[in-house]
């Protein structure tokens, strides 16, 4: 009888140790998810900053263009030269914007996929540990009934 009680006591202590280990693992995984979320927030902040910067440069460009057009209307110069090179700043700005938006979208997608995978891992681990805990509780209650 004493051996049986000792055996149940050892099993109970093992289950407590497993539960503690599972809780520690959960805390570590939660930290990883929090880190991924903070990375996502930082990347969203960078996207917003770059968008604001792009808007600023666009308004600055428009103001300078308006000022230059005003200066050009006051100047009357006859110039006959064939200059086929045209600098299309609108397309350059559009390209830069598309490039930075692409980078931001990729970063956002990567952060979201990392967050989703970590979250799924946490859910799976929590489910396993919950099932294991339920079975341990059931076993302990059965053992208590038999005692």
Automatic annotation (TrEMBL):
Q: Which PROSITE patterns match?
A: IF_ROD_2 (PS51842)
InterPro entries, per the entry? IF_rod_dom, Keratin_II
Task: Provide ranges: composition bias, Basic and acidic residues.
Answer: 129-147
Q: Which family does it belong to?
A: Belongs to the intermediate filament family.
Q: Which GO terms describe its molecular function?
A: structural constituent of skin epidermis
Q: Name one Pfam family in it.
A: Filament
Cite the IF rod domain residue spans from the record. 1-147
A GO cellular component entry from the record: keratin filament
The UniProt keywords, alphabetically, are:
Coiled coil, Intermediate filament, Keratin
Organism (species): Ailuropoda melanoleuca (Giant panda)
Record-given protein name: IF rod domain-containing protein
| Highest taxon listed in the record's lineage | Eukaryota
Keyword Coiled coil appears in the UniProt entry:
yes
Listed GO biological process terms: intermediate filament organization; keratinization
Q: Where is this region: Disordered?
A: 127-147
